[in-house]
Amino acid sequence: MADALKNAIAQSLECPVCLNTFTDPKILSCSHTYCKTCLDNLLDCHGNDQMLRCPVCRAETQVPNQDVSKLPANLALKSLIEDVKNQYQFCTNCKSKEAQAVVYCQDCGKYFCSTCHNKHSQWPDFISHDVLAMSEIVSGKVSVRRYRKCRKHPKDDEEWFCSDCRRFACFKCVVMEHTNEGHRVIEAAVYESNHVKSIEDLKSKADKKRSCFQKYIDFIDEQKEHVSNVQKQCTDDINKAYEESVRQLTKKKEVLIGEVKGRTEGVEKELDEIKKSAQEHITHFTTIADVVTNRTKIPLDTDALAAHDTLCQDLQEALKQEDPDYKQSIQLSRKGKSVSFKRNVGMDELALGKIANAFAFKNIALPTKNSMNIMVGTPDGRMAVGCDTGGVEIFSADGQLQQTVLKGVKIRGVGFLSDDRYVILDCSNNISLYRLQYTKLNVVFETLYNDEGEWAILNVGGDDQIYVSYWKAQKIQVFSPAGGKAIREIPCDGYEPQQITSYNDYLVTRSWDAIRLIDKEGVVKYELRELGYFPYATVSQGNTILIAKVNHDVGLVSIDEYTNELKHVQKLVIDYKIEKPERNWYFMQQYQSGEIAFCTPDRLYIFHWK
To answer: What is the pLDDT at residue 84?
Structure first.
């Protein structure tokens, strides 16, 4: 009975996974216990999953942060293992209860003291038995194969195994419980042999699979090496190309700087000559005036009187000279200020760009003074100017007025759909559609009237949606070409959307003091303030943003180029003198051929580069 109890205790101290005595036992939520190392291995099999499935009952346990050490320890079991390790194993063969065992026979299933071991090793039938030293058993180097004792019949070994019930049984249990149909009973030794063979087969397959994946890993390493070599080669090539590009850019930079210097130094030299001449006049006036006016004595003799008269005549002649002519210096200044660097944005940026002279090669008076309300590019590359006195005037890129259409309509806004139909906003904020033959279509749009929305501006996006901005209402309505009510509204919180331009998935809005890039929900993505003068924006052919700054008081316009984040790129036009109109109202667009059209209420300026 004592031996049976010892065997039962020994079996209860074995981990179901590794079949060895528990090491650092951890309890799962299902109450089953396993070695920490075994649980670590099981968790690794699940990858990054934090759920651990019990091998016995399949219940899942949450592993905090995938750290098995944080699971509760089976303290009672650890204590029992320590107690068992500290107990001596006595001989189970001799009658002496005090003889300490030195070996364990796997075949006999008994512990032997040194005396019994000597006798046992001399028996011819037992010479081939598998005998284990107790020192190796205690150290954990070897595991004891224990005979299973039946729980119902403790004196009988479980020498049989039922394949259907998946359990070992003694002969009595087999006769009483496992003889019915469906029970396949084999000897335990046969099952163990088959089980060992099955495990060996699985291990062999696992070795082959592991070898297969190892070859795959070796293959991946080879591919990584190839990719790494490509990366190194490309990096070397890029560095070489970069160094060559830097040399070319440095050379190009020096050429461009030299070209700018050559174009501007000549102007500066001429201005210096004019300045020198003016300074000589000042010196001449000062010298003669000092000589004449500083005389405190009246000349009495003939020679002194003659000299005095001559000096006075010289001063009189000098005073007859005309006042300085600013026109010459202004023209020279314009020549110098027209020099600009035209950067290659979105093109071959390695070429940097070129030095160009920006100048207004056309200055066209509009047919009707103080009438321009809107300017927009046409689908065929021309420029349409809408007038509040009636009509849309079409100008070519060389500034020729080619035709005037819709003369009877007072225009506030103009746009074009993808099928070239005109979209017209009149001075009552009504939208109308016109065919190419300028026949009005029966399409009605429910816009805000002047008393509710006040001044409105229209823009047609690339998606054929029609955008109408209202100053007073501080919002933008979006319409479908089919007409009817607005399909949505875009709020403009805190500012008046005085001009709008569709730009990719955004809108560029202009108010008195700022240019804003907003999304289709009204969220301001980028904002440009404190430009100094009234700003007017448009989208360039290179998909950048052009901003004109107008000093209306003196009639000067400058045009700069910005990125889609409203970061400055370059100056295009610097302080160009325009004829000051009555109204502070301007529009800017770019022709498809590259010229910039700048329109005042009275005139159309077309800037070109050469």
So the answer is: 65
Judge whether 202 lies within some domain.
yes
Helix, strand, or coil (residue 471): coil
Rounded Cα–Cα distance for residues 411 and 409 (Å): 6
* 563 CB-near residues (< 8 Å, 6+ apart): 544, 545, 569
pLDDT for 110: 80
The SS3 assignment for 126 reads: helix
Number of domains in the chain: 3
Measured on CA atoms in the order 191, 195, 196, 201, is the torsion positive or negative?
positive
pLDDT tens-digit profile of 321-379? 777 777 667 666 666 666 667 666 655 556 666 655 666 678 999 999 999 999 999 99
Q: Which domain holds residue 473?
A: 338-609
CA separation for the pair 204, 106 (Å, rounded): 26
Cβ neighbourhood burial of 38 (10 Å; 0-12, 13-18, 19+): buried
Question: Using CA atoms, how far apart are residues 169 and 379, in angstroms rounded to an integer?
Answer: 94
Say whether both 445 and 489 belong to one domain: yes
Helix or strand run (H / E) with residue 277: helix 188-293
Which residues does 45 contact at the CB level (< 8 Å), separation at least 6? none
Which DSSP category does 259 fall into? H
